[in-house]
């Protein structure tokens, strides 16, 4: 059982669950929250996310993962294939099963009067597949970070709000932008320990293309823009200034930036910065949601 839990990399679910919570909180603020649709959204996004994790392991097992000797708890894949815990066929079957859960959930929502869930869900499913699988393998072409931004940020908040309200909203879409930047930061920092293996295997993500020294500057920029985008939301979409409570995530973000700046060539000393980046994503999303709720009751 431990091998199956390890294979799905469940701790990374924060990257998709938090945007669902944000979208649901915005729906509550607009008077259209539905517990049933909330649970369906959680089931659907969880299925798509876990399926994507498994598919990534399946294809990386033929690429960079066998070459990777700088494994951390947050990067280098789950290692269940390299350690012989599960077969490649089993991992692929699990990925397809979780994708099926996401697809069935989307169909359920569509028949509940939410037809646009289908194109939103198919777009998310397509990104999850195209990120790792040939012929596109966006993770190898420098497009992976960009599509992850949308798939785990604006698309999730928009889809969640639409599932509950039945209406599409630019505000709901843009509300996912900060989370999009932070999940991109998670992906970005996790590519540093994988740099040598990715480079040798021809996996030309943006960290490989820019080089570690330059990539650390880009990481700091990504994380900084994540916070600045909250101010943009307040100014451009008239959201409450109380969403700036999300700046409670600034201390772990700054600490992660400082560690990466110093230790970007050391995979073991970089581990705390990887953990802090995930912590930033979680704390930011929770306090952003709390700010929306607090404004609603005030």
Layout of helices and strands, plus pairs?
Blueprint: H1 2-8, H2 14-29, H3 35-60, H4 88-111, H5 117-132, H6 144-151, H7 154-165, H8 170-174, H9 177-190, H10 195-201, H11 206-210, H12 212-237, H13 250-263, H14 271-297
Helix pairs in contact: 2-3, 2-7, 2-14, 3-4, 3-5, 3-7, 4-5, 5-6, 5-7, 6-9, 9-12, 9-14, 12-13, 13-14
Radius of gyration: 19 Å
Q: What do the pLDDT scores average to?
A: 90
Q: Helicity, in percent?
A: 55-70%
Structural class: mainly alpha
> How many independent structural domains?
1
* CATH level 1 name: Mainly Alpha
Strand and helix order: HHHHHHHHHHHHHH
The fraction of residues assigned to DSSP E strands is under 5%
Biggest sheet details: none
Q: Write down the overall geometry.
A: globular
- Number of distinct helices: 14
CATH architecture: Orthogonal Bundle
Uncertain runs: none
Give the termini separation.
47 Å
Characterise this structure.
The structure is a single chain. This protein has 298 residues and is mainly alpha-helical. It has one domain: Farnesyl Diphosphate Synthase (Orthogonal Bundle). It contains 14 helices and no strands. It has helices at residues 2-8, 14-29, 35-60, 88-111, 117-132, 144-151, 154-165, 170-174, 177-190, 195-201, 206-210, 212-237, 250-263, 271-297. The radius of gyration is 19 Å and the shape is globular. The termini are far apart.
Give the key terms.
about 300 residues, mainly alpha, Farnesyl Diphosphate Synthase, 14 helices, about 0% strand
């Amino acid at each position: 059982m431990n091998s199956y839990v390890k294979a799905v990399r469940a701790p990374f679910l924060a990257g998709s669950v938090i945007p669902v919570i944000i979208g649901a909180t915005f729906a509550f603020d607009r008077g259209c929250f539905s517990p049933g649709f909330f649970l369906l959204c959680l089931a659907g996004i969880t299925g798509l996310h876990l399926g994507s994790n498994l598919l990534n392991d399946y294809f990386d097992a033929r690429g960079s993962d066998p070459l990777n000797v700088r494994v951390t708890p947050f990067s280098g894949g789950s290692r269940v294939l390299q350690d012989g815990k599960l077969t490649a066929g089993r991992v692929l079957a699990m990925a397809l099963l979780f994708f099926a859960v996401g697809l069935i959930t989307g169909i359920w929502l569509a028949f509940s009067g939410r037809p646009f869930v289908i194109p939103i869900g198919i777009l998310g499913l397509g990104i999850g597949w195209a990120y790792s699988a040939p012929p596109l393998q966006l993770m190898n072409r420098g497009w992976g970070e960009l599509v992850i931004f949308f798939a785990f940020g604006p698309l999730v908040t928009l889809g969640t709000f639409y599932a509950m309200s039945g209406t599409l909203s630019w505000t709901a879409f843009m509300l996912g932008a900060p989370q999009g930047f932070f999940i991109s930061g998670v992906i970005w920092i996790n590519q540093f320990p994988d740099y040598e293996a990715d480079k040798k295997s021809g996996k030309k993500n943006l960290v490989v293309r820019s080089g570690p020294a330059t990539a650390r500057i880009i990481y700091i920029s990504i994380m900084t823009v994540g916070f600045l985008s909250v101010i943009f939301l307040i100014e451009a979409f008239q959201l409450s200034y109380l969403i700036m409570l999300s700046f409670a995530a600034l201390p772990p973000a700054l600490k992660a930036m400082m560690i990466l700046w110093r230790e970007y060539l050391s995979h073991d000393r970089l581990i705390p910065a990887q953990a802090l980046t995930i912590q930033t994503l979680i704390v930011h999303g929770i306090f952003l949601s709390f700010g929306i709720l607090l404004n609603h009751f005030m």
